[in-house]
Design brief:
- By secondary structure, this protein is α/β, with parallel strands linked by helices.
- It has 3 domains: about 140 residues, Resolvase, N-terminal catalytic domain (Rossmann fold, 3-Layer(aba) Sandwich), CATH 3.40.50; about 100 residues, Putative Large Serine Recombinase, Chain B, Domain 2 (Hect, E3 ligase catalytic domain fold), CATH 3.90.1750; about 200 residues, no CATH class.
- About 55% of the residues lie in helices and about 15% in strands.
- The chain is built from 18 helices and 14 strands.
- Strand 10 and strand 11 form a beta hairpin.
- Helix 8 crosses helix 9.
């Protein structure tokens, strides 16, 4: 009788438990000799799990079964061959069809009888149950660690490293994570991936950046100090706001305000949005006519993108020209540093914010005075303790609201300054790699308004002017 043996090991732990390939092969060979069979071949899958039949030498074994190269397959233990009832059933059907027997060195299986087939199926079912039970237990333990704020294990996300089983910041990578969060406020995943590769930054595997890698970092709440425990892949693909988040103890690479601000931006991009979000005319939401004050809207003219005064289009008496977008871009870039300097030096926007902040700070001072006044009134028996508590709680709640709002305003102003600074310093290289939508995002981030004019007035037949004058910017 021609016999072959099959051996498999997936981990070092199995080898330590006595399932090493040399041990299996020795036991299998001795068993074949004891039966008086001819040992014709061996099939070894070293480093492969038995979660399915997609193993190189298992597939070769199945092909050789169909070619009738042997009569019996010998293995040390059933879980070396399969670990699921469905895989065992599939194998038995193939073996039966070609009259191939199977024998276990350590278990009394004989597939030539009905009771033998029943026993081997029963053992496979028990093995599968044990495996699934262990998997559930591991999942429960991981969830417990996450709820405690501890890293559940596994490979650290880009930007972190594992030190003493906890996440610590990787100083070589965290700067890249911060760059990604800044760039994604105005650029898309593809452009950011391309830019990171051009700058020479490497991924965890040392390769080039991919769209999915950048998207994964942008949507990973671990950078903002959260942890997740997703029981299936569908949950892990949901936006962070739709996942169940736990408080992690790991150091944060991205402040939470910035993390959620980016999620809002990405959410708007995923949505439909209006013309402001989807128009591919770079200046459509910020361009103003210096002659009549109306906005200038984008139009196609002879296949080229142009801008014309909406007031003139509506019948107003305006002598402004049609503006070619390419010419406008050249004009903006020719004096870009000067324009950005005007914005940074402008006090219009900051004055509004400062006035609001001053007003809120004054309200905080008033609340503090009222709290002291209520306490004095209680001490002088003007109000009772219940009224003191009730009034104080109301004032404290308002105080908390103001403090939260102040923090948001200050953080927003700070982030806006960061965005403008980053774009201003890298505008030329970013512009080359960006698509139309991203270019529009860059301009609307830097400028809230650009007022333009031309040196000459419009006369029929004069066409598109060559010289564009930028009157003012905000």
């Amino acid at each position: 009788m021609r016999a072959v043996d099959y051996g498999r090991v997936s981990t070092d732990e199995q080898a330590k438990e006595g399932y090493s390939i040399p041990t299996q092969k020795e036991k299998n060979t001795n068993f074949i000799k004891s039966q008086g069979w001819d040992h014709v071949d061996s099939y070894i899958d070293d480093g492969y799990s038995a979660k399915n039949l997609n193993r190189p030498n298992m597939q070769k074994l199945i092909e050789d079964v169909k070619l009738k190269k042997f009569d019996v397959v010998v293995f040390y233990k059933l879980d070396r061959l399969v670990r699921s009832v469905s895989d065992l059933d599939a194998l038995l059907k193939i073996f039966d069809k070609h009259n191939i027997a199977i024998r276990s060195v350590t278990e009394p299986f004989d597939t030539t009888t009905a009771i033998g087939r029943f026993l081997i199926t029963l053992v496979a079912a028990i093995a599968q149950w044990e495996r699934e039970t262990i998997s559930e237990r591991v999942s429960v333990n991981m969830e417990k660690k996450v709820k405690m704020g501890l890293w559940p294990g596994g490979m650290a996300p880009y930007g972190y490293k594992v030190v003493d089983k906890e996440l610590a910041i990787n100083s070589d990578e965290d700067i890249v994570v911060k760059k990604i969060f800044i760039m994604l406020r105005t650029l898309g995943f593809y452009t950011v991936a391309k830019k990171l590769t051009e700058l020479g930054y490497k991924t965890t595997n040392g390769g080039e950046w991919h769209v999915d890698t950048v998207r994964g970092i942008a949507n990973n709440p671990v950078y903002a100090g959260y942890l997740t425990h997703n029981t299936n892949s569908k949950d892990s693909k949901k936006p962070p706001g739709e996942q169940k988040l736990y408080e992690g103890i790991q150091p944060r690479i991205i402040p939470r305000e910035e993390f959620w601000e980016l999620q809002d931006i990405l959410g708007k991009r995923r949505g439909t949005g209006g013309k402001r979000e989807t128009s591919n005319y770079y200046f459509s939401s910020i361009l103003k006519c210096a002659r009549c004050g109306h906005s200038m809207s984008g139009h196609k003219s002879a296949g080229k993108k142009t801008y014309r005064c909406s007031g003139k289009k509506a019948g107003k008496n305006c002598t402004s020209h049609i503006i070619l977008e390419d010419n406008l871009v050249k004009t903006v870039f020719s004096i870009f540093d000067e324009l950005v300097g005007d914005i940074v030096g402008s006090t219009d926007v900051s004055d509004v914010s400062n006035d609001k902040i001053k007003e809120m700070e004054n309200e905080l001072k008033s609340i503090e005075k009222l709290l002291k006044k209520k306490k004095t009134m209680y001490e002088n028996d003007i109000i009772d303790i219940d009224e003191l508590i009730e009034e104080s709680e109301k004032l404290r709640e308002r105080e908390k609201e103001i403090i939260r709002e102040l923090k948001t305003i200050r953080q927003t102003n700070k982030q806006d300054d960061k965005d403008i600074k980053f774009l201003s310093e890298n505008i030329e290289s970013l512009w080359i790699n960006a698509n139309d939508y991203e270019r529009k995002q860059m301009l609307t981030t830097i400028f809230s308004q650009i007022v333009i004019d031309t040196k000459e007035g419009y006369r029929r037949g004069t066409g598109i002017p060559r010289e564009i004058v930028i009157v003012s910017v905000k």
